[in-house]
Amino acid sequence: MSATTAIDPPDSELVRLANKPPWYTSLFVQLLVAIVAGIAVGWLWPDVGGSLKPLADGFIKLIKMLIAPIIFCTVVLGIAHVGDLKSVGRIGVKALIYFEAVTTFALLFGLLVGNLVKPGAGFSIDPQTLASGAEAVAKKTNDGELPHTVEFLLGIIPSSVISAFAENALLQVLFFAVLFGLALAKFGEHGPPVVMEFIDHLSHIFFTIIGWIMRLAPIGAFGAMAYIIGQYGIGSLGSYGKLIAACYAAALLFIVILAAIARLFAGVNLWKFLVYIKDEMFLALGTASTEVVLPRIMAKLTNAGCSRTTTGLVVPTGYSFNLDGATLYLSICVLFLAQALGVDLSLGEQITAVLVLMLTSKGMAGVPGSSFLALSATVAAIGHGAIPVAAVALLLGADRIMDSMRVSVNLLGNCVATLVVANWEGQLDKERMRKVLDGEAVPPLEDPDPMAAEDEFDVASRG
């Protein structure tokens, strides 16, 4: 019998290495190549890049068509298994408290950065040159407007169940799913198991389709990046260099703050978590959309120890109430506009801006040109005559470049919110989380969960 030396890997490790998929099958590698290729095409052949937007639009539409049914199945199954109305209420209240605290901090943090960096200093814009700005903003926003607070809250209640799904209104779908799940849970052991089984099978089917669609993710990311660079050009980076640098620097600092929150309030190492969700982060960055990764983020959070109920309630709600990146960007832009016009906003006017943005930022999700509408409402509320609402048009050249910053912070902020609320509610399996983030093998979830299942492409993506 031959002795095994200390440097010889165990048989299980040899089997794992032998079965390891080739590096080029990793979704992370494919997305990285696609994003770099998209930037190159948009830079070298801007006309070609500008025509590739349908690739991104098609991929995003494929994902969006499944988001509503996936949220419905996930929330219904999670609540039906818990069967506790008080628990659902606690999760919702805790999530909203967290959202309000963190987004308010993001607004104040953005003001701090804007006052220190002064991204608009040196522009010296003449207000008389902004005569056509209002028309440009109206075109960008399709003459829309943000809903008022009461209108926004009433909008959570769907006019019909069918319209909620047809219009892909996530909060409305979530509202109906909570009611349906609670009604199903009320039956308890005497309830119709066939309904639960049917919804469970449906969720598996939807996630299988998502697995197929994700094969097209690199094509979508390539088209999105080629369009952004081809349409807006690298030159815009120079014109708005200070603003862009300020926003991205603020985003990095805010991520450090999120890391501290995750460590203190959930015991989670955010760097390891970022490595765990790197595919989703790159896809969100490449397509400038967080919705395209919503199903996979929910799956990974659940697989890593967050309860299905918490994940199903917090993540979709966060898409409307927890826009950390967007609020950070908006507060910096308010100061940018004032500085570009040579206006010195008083402390009271800056506080007014924060109060207005606290309200307008909650109704931004799904509204075309929402950042421009929120800024227009804020400028109007400040009531400073030297800052015309048309000044918001100054940001048209840089807004699209900021999408990557906004979506990355929004996505990470929602993940941290889910971890914190799950831990707060005692529904975070920290030992499972530690093993998953360390790359260790974990047993299947005791409660069969469609979100934890991965198809062969997902497994290959991990490399």
UniProtKB/TrEMBL annotation:
Localization (cell)? Cell membrane
Keyword line = Cell membrane, Membrane, Symport, Transmembrane, Transmembrane helix, Transport
Q: How does it sit in the membrane?
A: Multi-pass membrane protein
Provide a GO biological process annotation: L-aspartate transmembrane transport
**Residues annotated as region Disordered?**
440-463
> What is this protein called in UniProt?
C4-dicarboxylate transport protein 2
> From which organism does this entry originate?
Mycolicibacterium mageritense (Mycobacterium mageritense)
Q: Where is the composition biased (Acidic residues)?
A: 446-463
Membrane spanning stretches? 23-45, 66-83, 95-117, 169-185, 205-228, 240-266, 328-360, 372-395
GO CC term (a single one): plasma membrane
Q: Does the keyword Cell cycle apply?
A: no
Would you say which domain of life the source belongs to?
Bacteria
Q: Name one GO molecular function term.
A: succinate transmembrane transporter activity
